[in-house]
Hints:
- The complex is a heterodimer.
- Chain A has one domain.
- Chain A is 71% helix and 3% strand.
- Chain A contains 11 helices and 4 strands, in the order ββααααββααααααα.
- The longest helix of chain A has 32 residues.
- Chain B is α/β, with parallel strands linked by helices.
- Chain B has a 6-stranded mixed β-sheet with strand order 6-7-8-3-9-10, sandwiched between helices.
- In chain B, strand 1 and strand 2 form a beta hairpin.
- The longest helix of chain B has 16 residues.
- Chain B is globular.
- At the A-B interface, helix 6 and helix 7 of A face helix 2 of B.
Amino acid sequence: MTMIFGIPLQAFLGQLLVGLINGSFYAMLSLGLAIIFGLLRVINFAHGAQYMMGAFAGFLLLSWLGINYWFALILGPVIVGLSGAVVERFALSRLYKLDHLYGLLFTFGLALVIEGGFRYFYGSSGQPYATPALLSGGVNLGFMYMPIYRGWVVVASLVVCIGTWLLIEKTKLGSYLRAATENPVLVQSFGINVPLLLTLTYALGAGLAALAGILAAPIYQVSPLMGSNLIIVVFAIVVVGGMGSIMGAIVTGYMLGILEGLTKVFYPEASNIVIFVIMAIVLLVRPAGLFGRDA
Amino acid sequence: MTDQSPLLSVKDLHAWYDESHVLHGVNLEVARGETVTILGRNGVGKTSTLRAIMGIMRKRIGDIHFDGQDLMRLPLHHTARTGIGYVPEERGIFATLTVEENLILPPVVSKNGMSVAEIYDLFPNLLERRTSAGTKLSGGEQQMLAMARMLRTGAQMLILDEPTEGLAPVIVQRIGEVLQTLKQRGMTILLVEQNFRFASKIADRFYLMEHGAVTTGFDVADLPDRMDMLHEVLGV
């Protein structure tokens, strides 16, 4: 059997793939958090709940209305994005004048309410969500067997991340967003409706979380606590990448996902804490984050 | 043309930064096509006056009319649409946008604006550096860019806060030439300026501010008679 650093090649590549898939979710979620933080200066603790709502949107659309995975992939983010827009307009926007801590506390409370609500109706156990027929099965890559759906998640996440990055860096709307991140008052004095831009940004962030949630539904089970299990790791990633840096969030998401996967091969005991160890080191050495500008 | 009524009129304007009352009843008028300079020492409320007119300072009472519209009632993002282009003291060039993105950022408010090609004719430096990050430009170039992006919007009036601050004499002269060109095209200009020599070359009329209010106003023709008083008040 082929060995790499004393580890069977298959185990190595298998964990590399698991890491890449986890990294795909980390990247999509930390991307949304970074966009929201950049413009709204809100640390969105409801992000995990919005990810869970995305997965449930897919599950409920299928079980209630028979709407399949592909339509849910579009409808779910739209529904969760709209709910995000409502939250921003009627609640979050009233907190901008206050200390940033209030936005964090509000979204934290909101996440508890949403997760509590879903637990009331669905309990803590997961609901299964079948892999769509088109993406079921697997391919033998010669050195390992890869489920097609997992390959799809990696590709879809790359497309979403690059697409969002292009939207922000290369379009007119993106230039409004970047400018408003630097100086919202001046941008508004130019005649741009910044309050609307804030609402759209929060909706976009929530929609991205929901999209990640639907992509996750066939892999993990759909459960009310799926978001809160994940979100703490995602916050650590955002801290490592640098708050508010879009590219930093994406690259760090994939990097740390892979690192976590490889730790499972070489020293499994540390795999649950490796990201937090990195976070602690980055905070000590480079508090603004790997890609962050000094605040 | 309603040449009789001023384009901008400000009456008994009071404004506050948090609890601190900084404007104590400012009165001023700017006619169409006129260039008006507000003079005054540091801290008398010149910048605050401009920010209150734009609506950036929200805690304000009094009366501000521009082109027949009541600016007191408008949300901040509607002020620019009435045709006012604001060039702030700190210039406000965005670091994460290229020069060209900075230039085309403010929405066009009327079809009287200059095209991007015309603007590059007027400011050739910006054309050369259009793909650089906005804040990689020199201070003078950033000031040019901050003015240029308002010319594209078709604003009827420019509000400039200390456009020559901290710039080399040759750049100050270039900014003076640009403002002269704009005046000839009929642009209305309201500016705050510490550089008295610069202001005296381009302004038609002056207001003097002390302690948060306008204390006197006079035409450029009366300037020689007022020099002693200005020396005393401004220390120039």
